[in-house]
Amino acid sequence: MNKWITSALLAGALVSGQFLGQAMAQDDKDTVRLGIDVPYEPFVMRDADGKLEGFEIDLGNELCARANLECSWVEQSWDGIIPGLLARKYDAILSSMAITPERERQVMFSLPYYNTPSVWITARDRDIDIDDKASLKGLSVGVQRGTIRDVYVTQEYGDVLDIHRYGSSQEVVNDLKSGRLDLTFEDFPIANDAIDFRQEDSPYKQLGDSIKTPTSIFGKGAAMAFRQRDKALAAKFDKAICEVYADGTFDKLMGEYFDYDLSVRPSEADCAQ
Amino acid sequence: MIDLQGYGPRLLEGALVTVELAVLSLILAVVLGLLTASAKLSRNRLIHGIGTLYTTLVRGVPDLVLMMLLFYGGQIGINMLTDQLYYAFDIDIFINVDAFVAGVITIGLIFGAYMGETFRGAFQSVEEGQMEAARAYGMSPLLAFRRVRFPLMMRHALPGIGNNWMVLLKTTALVSIIGLTDMVRVAAEATKATHEPFLFMLPVAGIYLLIASLSEWGFAKLSKRYSTGFGEASEWTN
Amino acid sequence: MDQLNAWFTQLLAGNAIFTANTLGFYWNGLVTTVQLVFLCLLLGIVLAVPLAIGRGSKRWWIKWPIYAYTYVFRGTPLLIQLYLVYYGVVFFNGIQDTIFWEVFKDAFYPALMAFTLNTAAYTTEIFRGAIKNTAKGEIEAARAYGMSKGLMMRRIILPSAFRRALPAYGNEVIFMLHASAVASVVTIMDLTGAAYYVYARFYAPFPAFIFVALIYLCLTFSIMFVFRRLEKRLLAHLRPRGA
User: Fold this and answer.
1) Do C216 and B60 make contact, defined as CB atoms within 8 angstroms?
2) How many Cβ atoms from other residues are within 10 Å of residue B53's Cβ?
3) Superkingdom of this entry's organism (chain A) (predicted)?
4) What is the pLDDT of residues A187-234, one digit of tens each?
5) How does strand A204-211 pair with strand A118-123?
6) Residues B160-176: pLDDT tens digits?
7) In the list A149, C127, C159, C194, which could disulfide-bond C52, CB 3.0-4.6 Å?
8) Which carries the bigger pLDDT value, residue B105 or residue C5?
9) Average pLDDT of chain C?
10) Which stretch of DSSP H or E encloses residue C48?
11) Using beta carbons and an 8 Å cutoff, which residues of A are at the interface with B?
12) Nearest in space to A110 (alpha carbons), one of A123, A98, A126
């Protein structure tokens, strides 16, 4: 019987030791875990060895270096990315998250670091008029679940289009390519990267104009998100975002991944704080 | 090693996750099942009620929904508690439920309910005469449980445990939806990236079949052992 | 205490979640789930009866393929079967140009096909067990009446086997209801899909999933109730006298 008691005590000691260790790591503010939804090309993707790379990985590492923080990346699917932050599975989200009023109730945002429009995509040989709602009846559209594009399509086209919601942007593109979807509503860079719709010989094309409004849905651009109580941490990253814009590092990084402009230069007033 | 377009090693790691997850959840489920069975056999109304509520709720709701609830809600629930501690007593602890642990707890909790039913039936099939004999030999209650009631119960429980294990094994596939990197998730990722569903899904299906066949064989052996002394009867039931 | 209070008010204010709009999602989800489960069970039975009879055949080339089918489909997760059908059909180049595409284009039919194959495998084994356990006396009596094999199957063996299979089949129905939750991974807005959407939209796991869990509980209890009634009626002759 003694053996059992000893091992139970030992196990208890081990577990509490682990908690202590974690509690201490919490105090050590120099390490920050960043949550990100993978893949979201070219912002983040995984190479063959499973290593993360992409624009947001480079940008995030740069911001961390400037804020003098040790950063690690935590992978989290998009559906659970805000609950994961609130649940302290990581300390900030750096995952192309648009600032929206709905999300601002849950989390605190940094300054926006980029802004892109959303675009309607369809097969090049299809003749669809996105503004003529009656003609859209019964067509299928793919969006990533819980994104601003999901909200927009649900609100504006919920009564005519057959909306398919996917867990990842990659699945949306796959089902457009397989022919399951008539339309997709995509973030411009994702659509550009995955289906190259701006090329003349691409089998896909853009429908209508690029869409950035209403701001109540699309927000002011993508920003990092923090728990409401971590104001100091957010301030550090705001400062770093201002710095990468001021000294041209942002433009240099942007040039490595994009042949168009997605910058949202922070105002001097924002950076003065 | 089989390469599978570079995904081979990750697929094997995923298979290991599947097996670890299944075995650890099984252990938890057996422990919970024994507790539940005793609760449901208890004469105490309250304890009996708790046991019944647990098995009814768990068996009435899909595994996937329970999993999502515990996975997404579990950590937030724990944090609410620790936040209370922080605000009330200024104690700042953080208990991190990592995905794997959450998976084991969730599956264990689900199958604990099924195991509970299995064990309850099995305990009830043990003849009281056997226990009376044990007591007559002067065995302490604990010794009588370990030497007499438990082994006798196991003979009746084994087929049920075997069935539950097979279902549990397949249930582990659901953790891939929630974000744990088991072999199904690796295969799904690979399928989405390469558009070759058969190349990845068929080997994974094969691994499940292999594990299932091996366990079938293992349970047959175990069942033989626990049926010692019931020779003829066990041959009939087989 | 204040905190607890705030949490409660937030929970009530969180009633913003259950608007007519989201309740509509849940309702559509319920309809989809019921349709999917009902159709796959129906098709599953249609497939399972001949398969169960064939499974008991003395000819190895009938018996073994059926056994292989049930072994594979019962030994692998439904999720994998679903992935294989959903992504697998696209794998056949040019399917987009055939009439099959109209069916497989939607996520509903690939899911229905995977679920049907899965439940048919389980149902086959349930029926086979019941057929195997037919009382010898019933068969002898049928033979004595000079019934042909087909007539005996139709009039004697199958009806009595169906009755005996009822409790096990009831479990299979509940199992299928619960298993159908995986349909949400291929974009189907079934009950779980609706809950998942509400969760992803409002970041509120507790209300979204507890609500749907309650709906599933109600469905499960209704199925159990129906099968209890059926068993009572159809298996009355098996109850001990005076009970």
Assistant:
1) yes
2) 10
3) Bacteria
4) 988 888 888 888 888 889 888 888 888 888 888 899 999 998 889 999
5) antiparallel
6) 999 999 999 999 999 98
7) C127
8) B105
9) 88
10) helix C20-55
11) 19, 22-23, 26, 48, 50, 75-77, 80, 83, 86-89, 168, 170-171, 174
12) A98
Residue type, A240: A
pLDDT at C2: 64
Q: Report the DSSP beta bridge partners of residue A118.
A: A187, A211
pLDDT of residue B50: 94
Contact A62, A196 (CB under 8 A): no
Task: Calculate the CA dihedral of residues B46, B47, B51, B53 and round it to 10 degrees.
Answer: 20
Integer Cα distance of A64 and A53 in angstroms:
15
**pLDDT surpassing 70 at residue A22:** no
Residue that wins the pLDDT comparison between A208 and C70: C70
**What pLDDT is attached to residue C12?**
56
Domain chopping of chain C, boundaries? 24-232
Better pLDDT: B13 or A215: B13
Which of A202, A218, A234 marks a domain boundary? A218
Does residue A40 have a pLDDT over 90? no
Number of domains in chain A: 2
Q: Look at residue A42 and tell me if it is in a domain.
A: yes
* Closest CB from B92, B179, B192 relative to A174: B192
Instruction: Select the more confidently predicted residue: C216 or A10.
Output: C216
Q: What is the pLDDT of residue A26?
A: 46
By residue count, chain C amounts to 243
Q: Which helix (H) or strand (E) holds B54?
A: helix B45-60
CA distance A265 to A249: 12
- Return the pLDDT at C7: 63
Task: Among A79, A175, A178, select the one facing C200 at the smallest CB separation.
Answer: A79
Contact B105, B180 (CB under 8 A): no
Partners of A249 in the beta sheet?
none
Q: What is the CATH number of the domain that holds B49?
A: 1.10.3720.10
- Taking CA–CA distances from A171, the nearest residue in chain C reads C186
CB atoms B179 and A76 under 8 Å: yes
Quick one: average pLDDT of A159-164? 91
Provide the domain limits for residue A268: 30-115+220-272
Total domains present in chain B: 1
Nearest Cβ partner of C213 from B65, B177, B197?
B65
Q: Is residue B68 part of a domain?
A: yes
Judge if ipTM > 0.90.
no
Is C187 close to A86, i.e. CB distance below 8 A? Answer: no
Residue A179 and residue C96: Cβ atoms within 8 Å?
yes
From residue B70, how far is each of B66, B78, B104 by CA, in Å? Answer: 6, 11, 11
- Kindly determine whether residue A151 and residue C105, on different chains, have CB atoms separated by under 8 Å: no
Q: How far apart are CA A99 and CA B33, in angstroms?
A: 47
Of B76, B92, B195, the CB nearest to A26: B92
How far, in Å, CA of C23 to CA of A103, rounded?
A: 21
Interatomic CA distance for residues B41 and B117, integer angstroms: 11
What DSSP string describes A17-62? HHHHHHHHHHH-TTEEEEEE-S-BTTTBEE-TTS-EESHHHHHHHH
Pick the CATH number of C24-232 from 1.10.3720.10, 1.10.150.20, 1.20.1050.10, 3.40.50.1820: 1.10.3720.10
- Chain segment B77-99, per-residue pLDDT in tens: 887 787 777 777 777 776 767 77
Inform me whether the C-beta atom of residue C225 falls under 8 Å from chain B C-beta atoms: no
**Residues A134 and A176 both lie in one domain:** yes
Model confidence band, residue A27 (pLDDT cutoffs 50, 70, 90): very low
Which residue out of C76, C182, C202 would a mutagenesis test of the B interface target, given it has the greatest number of B Cβ atoms within 10 Å?
C76
User: With a CB-CB cutoff of 8 Å, which residues 154-173 of chain A face chain C?
Assistant: 164-167
